[in-house]
Amino acid sequence: MLSNILYILLAIVMLGIIVTVHEFGHYLVGRLCGIGVLEFSVGFGPRLFGWERKGIQYSLRAIPLGGYCAFLGEDERNDDPRAMNNQPVWKRFLTVLAGPFMNFVLAFVVCAIMLNAYFIAETYPIIDQVVQGMPAEAAGLMAGDKILSVNGVELTNDSAGVSLMLQTMQSGDLTKPVDLLIERDGAQQDYQMTAVPVEVEGSTRYQIGIVFSSRTFSFFESLREAGSYMAETTGMMLDSLKNLIFKGEGLEDTTGTVGIIAVVAQRAREGMYMVLWLMFIISLNLGIINLLPIPALDGGRLLFLIVEAIRRKPIPPEKEGLVHAVGMVLILGLFVVLTYHDIVRLVTGGFNF
Q: Is 260 exposed, middle or buried (0-12, 13-18, 19+ CB in 10 A)?
């Protein structure tokens, strides 16, 4: 019970960090552009405590599932030269865009950390571990042994060599012994063993029981690869979103805030890698969703700014405010529906703790 509470708190803190980073993007760029800030708040609801500095209220509120940055003249006309409504389009555009952008920055940083700490960059045909009770142990193989060839096929000392070894083994008669040429302490020796069937993720694979040596990405490699990994993940997210909107695929798996907290609390038990991966996915997803041209979201505000730039005059604030208000009502309605759905799944055991 206590562990469940701790993991739920971890999930809430994670969401709070992701949303706070988003709002900090608005805050930082807005201040750099000279736009007046009324309040920067972490959380919603009743104010627990806070302080004032240079006319800006900084608050910590009771519901840690979001936050906001309130600008002077954001949704109404204001004669103050620092008011948002008196700023040129490009300053307002950058300020609004900065929120989703910071979510992409956070996703990039977390992705780079994952690559550097957990992702395998290269594997070598060198034995790192020998699995107890498997044929490799019975044959006498040891950690540190370098595999030079398999069934007479020479291997290169890189990932390609590992792939060639696995391909050679799987393409042969798995009921016959595998012949490995091993180098140990500068001496070469032949070993023979017969692979045994092992159940892996619902399928049967033949293995001899060794774990190859490998390395994770270096610091600079992780920075380079993080961009590619983000682009690939973004493409998959956009495909899923398109299929959800136009085909209804994945509708039954869509969750709200309660469901996200439940999933994070459940999966975080798998270790720090899963915590980082979930933060990466949620932050990237939040950045993408906020760029959609939906009223009340950043994407909707950006669309109005683009129209203003084309028309060379602002859309009346009351009209834009009405559109955003309608969008907010629809979003809140969706939030209520998803929350109800999440609670039903919790009660019926749809989320496992």
A: buried
Average pLDDT, whole number, for the chain?
88
Neighbouring CB atoms inside 10 A of 89's CB total: 14
Coil/strand/helix, residue 50: strand
Between the CA atoms of 255, 234, 290 and 69, what dihedral angle is there, to the nearest 10 degrees? Answer: 100
For position 2, what pLDDT does the model report? 64
Are 35 and 84 a contacting pair, CB within 8 Å?
A: yes
Cβ count near 208 (within 10 Å): 23
Read off the tokens for 260.
């996200």
Q: What would the two tokens of residue 80 be?
A: 């103050």
Using 50, 70 and 90 to split pLDDT, how confident is the model at 1? low
Q: Is the dihedral of CA 276, 277, 278, 280 positive or negative?
A: positive
User: Using one digit for the tens of pLDDT, what is the confidence trace for 130-164?
Assistant: 999 999 999 999 999 999 999 989 999 999 999 99
Sign of CA dihedral 21, 23, 24, 30: positive
Q: Which helix (H) or strand (E) holds 15?
A: helix 2-32
pTM of the predicted model, to two decimals? 0.84
Closest to 61 in 3D by CA, of 20, 100, 31: 20
CB 145 within 8 A of CB 235: no
The C-alpha atoms of residue 265 and residue 23 are separated, in whole angstroms, by: 24
Work out the average pLDDT over 65-93.
88
| CA nearest to 71, candidates 52, 60, 87 | 87
Structure tokens at 96: 């609004």
Instruction: Check residue 333 and give its pLDDT.
Output: 86
Strands (DSSP E) contained in 5-138 are 37-53, 56-71, 120-130
CA distance 240 to 145: 45
